[in-house]
Design goal:
The structure holds 2 protein chains of 2 kinds.
Chain A: H1 6-12, H2 14-29, H3 37-46, H4 48-62, H5 71-87, H6 92-116, H7 121-140, E1 145-146, H8 150-156, H9 179-206, H10 213-235, H11 242-260, H12 262-272, H13 274-279, H14 284-309, E2 312-313, H15 321-331, H16 343-362, H17 367-407
Antiparallel strand pairs in A: 1-2
Helix pairs in contact in A: 2-16, 3-10, 3-16, 4-11, 4-12, 4-14, 4-15, 4-16, 5-6, 5-7, 5-14, 6-7, 6-14, 8-14, 9-10, 11-12, 12-14, 15-16, 15-17
Chain B: H1 6-12, H2 14-29, H3 37-62, H4 71-86, H5 98-122, H6 127-149, E1 154-156, H7 160-166, H8 180-207, H9 214-236, H10 243-261, H11 263-273, H12 275-280, H13 285-311, E2 313-315, H14 322-332, H15 344-363, H16 368-395
Chain lengths: 408, 396
Amino acid sequence: MGEFNIKNFLRKYMMLIAMVAVVIVFYFLTGGKSLLPQNINNVISQNAYVFVLGTGMLLCILTGGNIDLSVGSVVCLAGGVGAIIMSKNLPWPVAVAAMLGMGLLVGMWHGFWIAFIKVPPFIATLVGMLAFRGLANVIMQGYAYQVDDASFLSIFGGGDSCYIPDFLAGVGPDVGLNKTCMVFAVLVAVGYAIFTFINRSRLIVKGYKVDAIGVVILKTVLIVAVVIWLGYKLASYKGIPTVLIWIAIVLGLFAYITSKTTLGRNLYAVGGNEKATRLSGINTKMVMFSAYTLMGLLSGFAGILNIARLMGSQPTYGMGYEMDAIAACFIGGASAYGGTGTIGGVIIGATLCGIINQGMVIANTPPNYQTVVKGLVLLVAVLFDVIMQMRRKASKKTGNAAEGGAKA
Amino acid sequence: MNNFSVKDVLKKNVMAIALFVIYVFFTIMTGGNMFTSSNVASLIDQNAYVFILGVGMLMCMLTGGNIDLSVGSFVCFMGAVVGIFSVSNKLFATPLPVPVVLIIALAVGVAYGALLGFLIAYMRIPPWIATLAGYLAFRGLGTQILITASETSAISNFPSEFLAIFSGKIFESGYDSMNIPCIVLGVIGAAAVIVLNITGRARKVAKGYQADPMWFTLVKSILVAAIIMVIAYQLSWDGGLPVVVLWIVAVLIIYGIVTEKTTIGRHFTTVGGNAETARLSGINNKLVMFCAYLNMAVLTVLASLIVTARFGSANAFAGQNFELDAISACIVGGVSAYGGSGTVVGMVIGAALIGVINQGMSLMSIDQDTIKIVKGLVLLAAVVFEILSKKGNKRQ
């Protein structure tokens, strides 16, 4: 029952192991620079959009390997709208609402064509990619807009003060660390540990199968260590970047939606077998519509984070973002045929992408080779997933044959 | 027996009629500017690659709505490859003779096509992911090659033989006189269309198939012949027949015959119509998929040669958005986004339609961004039109 074998373990944590390996490789390639506090901070703020868009893309991919090619253009459009509103000296909440609204509208537009008219997603979103990039340029008339609303910038992670202020700076002796950040990291780590064990005992009470206590302890200790290490690194720079809070909120919210709610289950069901899902009374059109609507909303949100970090908006922003989001999902183990994939996977995929990008930048890899590497990483990740699936199918077949033989 | 009606004719040729109406519309809006010799010539020159790539994309889409996103980047990459071998540069000081370069280009295309076909057909990687990887990788590789090979990150000064094969004009003459070879070729083409249409109908009648009425065949042939003559006349005042026209016509005729008349062509449509049925009736689905992508890569090489020759240089921006143009041409030309139906003729009309919209709006000095929006909406309208008309047919 609680059998533990090394092969399963490797399969399950393949990408995590790859991530650790990549971190180590870049640590040596860059002579230790890649793990400097400032660089860790940069990995987070430069890749915030990958986490947000990857989350939305996961929802689409879950419904059957469908993608959204328009996200880059939508990020640009939403950002442009927001920047223009703020340049007219309107209060920033209006701009934020407009950007989210823009994203939502675009999402509904895609959702309508894809879910109700049955336009193939890649075509509908290809149209979006063209049309919304064009629309963004028309609205901005080819100009760049600056965003200098201080409160907007610090809330959404741009400029010099986009960090959670150190409330505890005056408490105790000065140790050169951001104490709020440190305390927060410890709280998160402890919270995670407590939650894991409570959850485990609840599952045992209900009679579910659980991992062996040794494995759980090891896993928890590792995660706690990583969280505290990350907290320490951030604390020795400027503290918690506000954008990290936003990423955490988006990821947490959608982790909950995908794993605990009916909508989440429906996404997996539609991707697993659309016909069976429809026949069991689920409105599959509505599920598809929701997936693309949420994708649009998240694109709008990524637009907010984007113009905040870059402190302005330009007609070329967001190009190629769709590739990053798609790559994050597949590297994180989402199936290209739909029905499998988790937010946890997206986190790993996006982080891995981010580390590779950052590492290559620090190691002075020419940008053109960077895109080549990105393409190959994407291909390898999918190839890995496809081969694993083939193996699983093959082993199932032989397994069944053996069982059949035993019965006879 | 002969249930021939005007309504059917309209329905079948709706895109051709749309093309005509839109062309006339833009000709009027631009005050006849659209119909000058130089603009007719540049319409063909600028869109040559769409016809070539559209044919390749058509073969991929027939097998089940599969696409190739990497064609644009591959055009850029191949331009760089051809460039470093045919012009003296920092990587290779001595240029190779043109035929050798062409063989190398073809070999690289076949190698990429075979790899792509293997990944998609035999490893069952979804086409858009495999080609997305190519989209990223080849743009990067191509740009890097160009940057390393030349200080301006572009290679120009291609040998004149190379330019003559893929751009330039046949028996070029001045712009002040009519080019006779061009008119002669036009007459030959027009006559061939009329003869082929009439003998084709006669063969159909002899075999007892249903055929269009004689007058309709005649009207259609004469219309097509007239269009060919008008184009030939216009081109003859612009220095002569561009070489790319020969390349386009050759590719279109070959693939028109392959898709309509041969078993292999039928296999593509069958696999796209119902993969399982195709497999059970003994078609090697995997091989068909493999061929579709191999073919796509080879045609992309041709498109790359044409584009490189047209600009006379290989640069990092070559081929941007070519995949979108090829896909749009197919979809607007009535190729099903789910596979299984579509014709070369349809794709040609789709490509021409997009080309005309593009040129017309540019001549009216509408900005590129609005053109992008319009292009996107035309694509969407075409898909929705196709899906809705199919639904209508089913209900009947």
